[in-house]
Amino acid sequence: MYLVKTPAWLRLIYPSLMWRKLNDSNKIYITFDDGPIPIVTPFVIKTLKLYKAPATFFCIGDNIRKHPEVFQQLLDEGYSIGNHTFSHLKGWITDDEVYLQNIKKCNLLVKSNLFRPPYGKIKRSQIELLKKEYPDLNIVMWDILTGDFDENLSPETCLKRVLHATRPGSIIVFHDSLKALERLQYVLPRALEYWSQKGYQFEKL
Question: For the whole model, what pTM was predicted?
Answer without folding.
Answer: 0.96
